Protein: Polyisoprenoid diphosphate/phosphate phosphohydrolase PLPP6
Organism: Perca fluviatilis
Amino acid sequence: MPSPKAKNPVRSGGSPVLGSSNGRYEFMSLTKPLNRSSPSHLLQRQGSEPTTARLRASESPTRRRGSSSSTGSASGQGLSEEDGIRLNPSFVRVALSSLLAIDLWMSKRLGVCACEDSSWGSVRPLMKLIEISGHGIPWLAGTAYCLYKSDSAAGQEVMLNLLMGLLLDLVLVAIVKAVVRRRRPAHNRMDMFATFSVDRYSFPSGHATRAAMCGRFLLAHLVLAAPLRVLVLLWASLVGLSRVMLGRHNVTDVMFGFWMGYCQYNLVEMLWLSPQTLQGLLGQLA
Ligand SMILES: CC(C)=CCC/C(C)=C/CC/C(C)=C/COP(=O)(O)O
């Protein structure tokens, strides 16, 4: 495998399957036998990795006693099954680091409306309009207005549950953002309208969770005509795409956001407030 270039972010994590030689990192095969000429410090480097060290400590006494032969096997005859198990966590780390690097690279390439001077800077106002269409304030205000105006019990029930879903979404997204604390992309200009303090973090995209949850909600309860259903799907997709194009989010923030919003709708269905439940709640309050 070719060695990654110096600026490759995959390397910066100091992944244990990357050997270091003269300051350069090389990928090492997890399955092929190690070459005899492999510098011994490559193996030492793996051993110094905490996960590997922990696994070593749990090796059986038999294996520890025969450690000289096992080293011989690792350096000459090929890796045993146990060695494979020991290296697997490192493989997962490299896979995750690579995914992260691809995510950052794609997000930067797609952030074509991040500012007016960007390659698609002229589309930025349209993207910001789409951003507002997925913002929490218009959705909360619109739902509250429809709830107030609705004169049928069924309409009120649907609007009340949408309101509950929107509030639930705000809380859940704030919790995940506060726990994960992933910074927004460096090319983002923080000129978003009405944000909370957790909105300085980017994972997950609150607009994507809302678009997915409200999209599913609209399709299930309000929008029945086929052309309108297509429009709802198109709107939700555009909201997600605009987050990356505006440079607000990385691709994974939006993808996870869509998944989270999709699941949130299941939660809304589970917690569905029926008129009876509502009457009970209101009775308790009165
Ligand atoms: C009544 C009430 C609590 C309203 C708050 C609505 C509000 C300020 C929501 C924040 C929406 C927002 C800017 C989310 C960030 O979305 P990302 O896609 O950038 O994560």
